[in-house]
Specification:
It is built from 15 helices and 18 strands. By secondary structure, the chain is an alpha/beta fold. A hairpin with a 2-residue loop joins strand 15 and strand 16.
C-alpha cells in the first residue's frame, strides 16, 4: 500500500505518536486548578491521568524479600509456562518466593530439598525467626544508594507476599499465624522508604492482595487453581483492605502494586478513589481483578479493571503501546533470592541493556527485580548486572529518561544492526544495539536538513553525515569502543521517509 512519501518527524509525532499517547482521560486537575474528587467507579477512576514522573522514570527496582529468602532455593529448569504443562511448571517452579507452595506439591524438588536440609516436619514459618535475626544487620542506606547510582527513579518493595508474612509490624493481627510468624520486628518498609526518599527516588509498595496461603492454604498446581486460591470471605477482605490503608497512611507510597487479584470490587474501587484523592500523582497497576472477573476470561491482568499501567511479566510488547506499561522481571529466572542461580540463569549486561532500550522505545518502563538474601545482601552477580546497566546509563541516559516513543519503535540499519528510537525536545535518538564493524552506519529512510547535527553520546564533537538517496549515512569515530549499545543524537528532529 502506498502512503505519503515524506513526513516531517515532528509533524508525524504530533499526528501519530502524540495522538496515540495523548491521555484520553481527563487531566488530574480540574479547570479551576483544584484537585479532582474521584469516585469509587471505574468511569471516575479512568479519568486519572498517568503523572509525568512515571512517564519519565523508565527504570524502577523491584525487591522480592521475605522469609522465603532464608532457604533461598528453587529449581532452575521450570521452562516457560505455556510451553511446559502447568502441572509440571508449578512442581518445578523457579520462583523461589513460591517456596511454600512448591514445598506442598508432593514429589517436587523443593519438597525433597526441604526434607534433606531442614527435616520434613520443619514448619516453613519457622524461617521467620531466622529472617528477623539476620535482617538486623541490613543497611537500607547502602541499598538505596546502589539503586540511585544505577539510575533507577523508583523502588517497589514487597510488603507482603503470598505467604502472608509482612515486612512491617502491622496493626492488623493475622488470625492464622502465631505472633512470631506474622511480621518482621524491624520496620523494613519504613526504613527503606526513608532511605529511598533520601536519594530522591520515588517509593512504591507491592502487596499480594489475591493470594495469602495463611488464610487459604490452597496448593496451586494449575492456572485455574490461581483463581480458586484467592480468599474472598469477609474476614480476609477486611484484612487486606486494612493492610492497604495502613500502608498508604504510614508510608505514603507513590505506587500501589497489587498482585494476582483482590477480594472485593467495592473495596478496590473505594481504596483507589481514596488513594487518588489523597495522592493525585500516585499510580496503580492492573492486577486488581476479583476471582469472578478473572473467571470471565480476563485472567490476572484484566484489561477492563481500572489501571494506570499494565504489567507484562518476563515479557514485553512488540509495538509502541499507547497505554503506559511496565515490564517486570528478575535479573535471573526468580524474583526471590535463589542460591541455585548462576551466570547461565542471569541476563548479561548486554541482554539487559538491549531489553531495556526496547521497552523504553515502546512506551514502557522496566521494573527490574533484585532478590536479596535474608540479611539484605544483594548477590554479587545481581549487583554486577545493575552496575553494568548503570555504567551504560551514565553515558546514554539522555536517550532514556524523560523521552517518549518516536514515530516507530525500531528498525535495522542497512548493515543489519538492530536500532531503537526515542525522542525528546525536538531530538531523535537512534540507539544501536550492536557496534558497527566499519565505523559507518546507514539509517534507511532518514532525511536530515543541512543544519542538523549528529552526535554520538559519550564523545566530543559532531559526526560527519551525508544523504545517499533516501538513506542517512553517518561516519562514526574510529575510536568508538565496543559498548553494549551506542546512541546517536539527531537534532533537530529528522524527516522519516515512509513508503
Amino acid at each position: 500500500m502506498l502512503r505519503r512519501a515524506v513526513v516531517r518527524g515532528a509533524t508525524l509525532v504530533l499526528l501519530v505518536t502524540a495522538l496515540a499517547l495523548m491521555p484520553t482521560r481527563r487531566a488530574a486537575a480540574q479547570d479551576d486548578g483544584s484537585a479532582p474528587s474521584f469516585k469509587p467507579t471505574t468511569e471516575s477512576l479512568n479519568q486519572h491521568e498517568v503523572p509525568a514522573w512515571f512517564e519519565d522514570a523508565k527504570l524502577g527496582i523491584f525487591i522480592h524479600w521475605g522469609i522465603y529468602s532464608v532457604p533461598g532455593w528453587a529449581p532452575t529448569s521450570a521452562g516457560e509456562l505455556g510451553e511446559v504443562p502447568p502441572e509440571e511448571w508449578f512442581a518445578n517452579n523457579s520462583y523461589a518466593e513460591w517456596y511454600l507452595n512448591t514445598l506442598r506439591i508432593e514429589g517436587s524438588p523443593t519438597e525433597s530439598y526441604h526434607a534433606e536440609t531442614y527435616g520434613e516436619d520443619y514448619d516453613y514459618y519457622n524461617f521467620a525467626s531466622t529472617f528477623n535475626d539476620e535482617v538486623q544487620t541490613w543497611n537500607p542506606e547502602d541499598m538505596a544508594k546502589l539503586f540511585a547510582d544505577v539510575g533507577a527513579r523508583y523502588v517497589v518493595l514487597t510488603s507482603k507476599h503470598h505467604d502472608g508474612f509482612t515486612l512491617w509490624p502491622s496493626r492488623s493481627d493475622n488470625p492464622h499465624l502465631a505472633n512470631e510468624h506474622e511480621s518482621t520486628k524491624r520496620d523494613i518498609v519504613g526504613d527503606l522508604a526513608a532511605a529511598v526518599r533520601k536519594q530522591d527516588l520515588r517509593f512504591g509498595l507491592y502487596y499480594s492482595g489475591g493470594i495469602d496461603w495463611s488464610f487459604r492454604p490452597k496448593v496451586i498446581k494449575s492456572i485455574p487453581d490461581l483463581t480458586d486460591a484467592v480468599p474472598t470471605n469477609e474476614t480476609y477482605a477486611s484484612y487486606a483492605q486494612a493492610h492497604w490503608r495502613e500502608l498508604i497512611e504510614r508510608y505514603e507510597p507513590s505506587i500501589l502494586w497489587n498482585d494476582i487479584a483482590y477480594p472485593s470490587v467495592e473495596r478496590r474501587q473505594q481504596l483507589i478513589a481514596d488513594y487518588y484523592n489523597q495522592f493525585p500523582k500516585g499510580v496503580v497497576n492492573n492486577r486488581w481483578s476479583t476471582p469472578d472477573e478473572m473467571q470471565n476470561g480476563a485472567g490476572i491482568q484484566r484489561s477492563g479493571v481500572h489501571a494506570d499501567f499494565t504489567t507484562p511479566e518476563y515479557a514485553q510488547y512488540d509495538e509502541i503501546t499507547p497505554k503506559k506499561w511496565e515490564a517486570t522481571r528478575g535479573i535471573g529466572h526468580s524474583f526471590g533470592y535463589n542460591r541455585n542461580e548462576g551466570p547461565d540463569e542471569m541476563l548479561t549486561v548486554d541482554e539487559l541493556v538491549d531489553s531495556f532500550v526496547d521497552i523504553v522505545s515502546k512506551n514502557g518502563n522496566l521494573l527490574l527485580n533484585v532478590g536479596p538474601k535474608a540479611d539484605g545482601t544483594i548477590p554479587q552477580m545481581q549487583v554486577e548486572r545493575l552496575q553494568g546497566l548503570g555504567d551504560w546509563l551514565a553515558v546514554n541516559g539522555e536517550a532514556i529518561f524523560g523521552t517518549r516513543p518516536w514515530v516507530e519503535a525500531g528498525d535495522t540499519t542497512a548493515g543489519g544492526i538492530p536500532v531503537r528510537f526515542t525522542q525528546k525536545d525536538n531530538r531523535v535518538y537512534a540507539l544501536l544495539l550492536e557496534t558497527p564493524s566499519n565505523f559507518e552506519v546507514t539509517l534507511e529512510n532518514f532525511h536530515l536538513e543541512e543544519e542538523t547535527e549528529v552526535t554520538l553520546l559519550g564523545t566530543d564533537g559532531t559526526l560527519s553525515w551525508s544523504q545517499n538517496g533516501r538513506d542517512l549515512v553517518v561516519e562514526l569515530p574510529d575510536t568508538m569502543d565496543d559498548a553494549v549499545a551506542h546512541t546517536l543524537r539527531i537534532a533537530p528532529m529528522p524527516w522519516r521517509l515512509i513508503q
